[in-house]
Amino acid sequence: MERNSKKSSGMKEKESFHVIHKVPSGDTPYVRAKHAQLVQKDPEAAIVLFWKAINAGDRVDSALKDMAVVMKQVDRTEEAIEAIKSFRGRCSKQAQESLDNVLIDLYKKCGKVDEQIALLKQKLRLIFQGEVFNGKPTKTARSHGKKFQVSVKQETSRILGNLGWAYMQKTNYMAAEVVYRKAQMIDPDANKACNLGLCLIKQARYDEARSVLEDVLLGKLPGSDDIKSRNRAEELLLELESRQPPPLDLPGLNLEDDFVEGLERLMNEWAPSRSKRLPIFEEISAFRDQLAC
């Protein structure tokens, strides 16, 4: 009886270990690779074992994706790209979408912007053809260990946002603007609004940019309460103000002190009864030639 109790206790401890460390149980190449990755924190050993899992046909979908992620972490990005291209044919149809997402991150990491744009456009074509999420309206995604549902609409907006950012890396701000506007029409958020504002600033369309960024600060968009988005909107507004030239119809602004004093003296000669405080310069055109002196 006691032996059974100890055996049961040992099994529970083993199960809790796998739950805590989020590693599968067993002794296959894939399981050993995950143990090296998550428990031993040895990425190079994990990569070797992931290769063994792929060659042995052991959970190839997960092994290829996980290996590419680990390779990215240790700056072996080019190898990860080649691995996905070479072995994705061994993976199931259901795994192709997540492999594309990993590939996009890898392209972004190593600056392959053209490849990133091509793959993002391909993903958008799949959406238009109704083939995204393997034909389902939603999919289950993970973030920070939590599961949540993503709709086709949200996925479309996310891909458009990534495409807009890729165009910005190529300084094609007009294309980026078009893409960001479409993304905002589908599923607006504060982060994409900030990127749209930056596109408009780069095109010297300051009034439009100000309107977009102020919507973030006024809390009109989802995600406006995120401190990072608010800070970025404020920074972009400051950049906008530094780029924008002073209005031409307000000649009393940003003038040198000696110029203002000379103008005061001239105004007092012509209208001695005036207050010494400068009014709006409604008569400035009448004495433009004298100012030139």
Automatic annotation (TrEMBL):
Pfam families: TPR_8. Its main location: nucleus. It comes from the Eukaryota. SUPFAM superfamilies: TPR-like (SSF48452). It is found in: Nucleus. TPR repeats lie at residues 157-190. One of its GO terms (cellular component) is nucleus. Keywords: Coiled coil, Nucleus, Repeat, TPR repeat. PANTHER family: PROTEIN POLLENLESS 3-LIKE 2, PROTEIN SULFUR DEFICIENCY-INDUCED 1. Belongs to the MS5 protein family. This is Uncharacterized protein. It comes from Nyssa sinensis.
